[in-house]
Amino acid sequence: MRAAMQLHRRNQLPQAITAYRAVVARWPKIAGAWYNLGFLQRQTRDFQEALVSYKRALAAGIVRPEEVHLNRAVIYSDFLRDHEAAAAELQQALTLNPGYIPALLNLANLYEDFGKRPEAGSLYARILALDPHACEALARFANVQPLGSIDAALIVRLENALLAATQTSDRASLGFALGRLLDLTGQYHRAFAAYAAANRASLASVEGVVKPYDRAEQHAFVDRLMSAEAPAAKALASMVPPRPVFIVGMFRSGSTLTEQLLAGIPGVAAGGEIDFVPRLVSTELRPYFESLIALTPERLDALAARYHDELVRVSASAHFVTDKRPDNFLYIGLIKRLFPDAKIIHTTRNPLDNCLSIFFLHLDQQMSYAMKLADIGHYYREYRRLMAFWKKEFASDIYDFDYDALIRAPEAQLRGLCGFLGLEWPGQVPLVATRGAAIRTASVWQVRQPLYCSSSGRARHYAGELNELRDSLADLQ
Fold it and tell me: Which CATH number fits domain 216-476: 3.40.50.1000, 3.40.50.2300, 3.40.50.1820, 3.40.50.300?
């Protein structure tokens, strides 16, 4: 066991897995060994084996079995897309420990994914009854409040919680929730101040852990993407259904709405934000540009087949599966080598609205540009520069899909998109809210509403705060 733990600490995961397997083969009743084995198998994306190991840990009498059920639930919901199984695991955890807050949080989040606002709100309220100082639960409770139901007392409660919060991560969550409520009630100056403070707290919470956004580095990276020699090797295997449709662009540019509208058309399934391409770039293809040169058709075929397995997991019967990982715009060159015939939908939006929406969202801090307006503006310019290059390289396979135009004339815009993909027009604009599928995105509530115009032109409410950003993007309007 000590040897296995040391291997894990040194990040030698395959060797650690082998060591734990040796332990459980000889001593199958050591519950902790099964648990650690399951944890490592989850890290290496061997999800079915991880589920088996966690089950063996339960059978061996693991202490705090509710934690094991929580881990199994995360695998089912985040990776295997089996949301019913995830809910069952969470319910089992709560049967064992009704006050287990992590399970309550995850179950409430699952309800949010399915658009079950009252059920999610009820669970967040239950957590707050157990722990009135649960900042994350309070923030999420505020975030599920619908427009028209904003209680002034809840705003005061968030403000008081912010004053009492000692952790920067808590101040970030509470601040973004407060900003949302103030924005919804038309208190725009106060809302902007709350969002700005929330971003400062979010940045402080990862100080020394996440590298700050480096404008020169991003510019050089885009330069290299555009100047890299285009290798001739491409995947050889013929594309069989389901085929990928990549939805790329800036975060908060309408990608979720685009995907959900497409998923209402027969033959299209929503894959959500499939992390295959960015994960490939950050692991197996490091260093990226050197790896691109060395890729052979056979290796590309193997990678394309693995990605195809991800699509089959979403739907084996669909003709198209969407991948709406927005920042795949960085890797369109790689995508077109893996799938030479791939169709790419580029979602666009008014630049100021887009940048403001990013600033108002509690994004993963790994997206380090997202916490300062000036950095967002710089990143946006680099994105536009790169997309102009890709559109010259792959003009016939990239389709600009404008969120603002969609809101004004949804049928005309969707007809054009269907034509680009070779899909038959279904006769009417699909409805998103009536479908029961899970939507795992920060836009889960907006996208379930009928098409609305309030997000288009949103920046006008913050004209004074956006002067510098407006000047920096003036030529891109």
Answer: 3.40.50.300
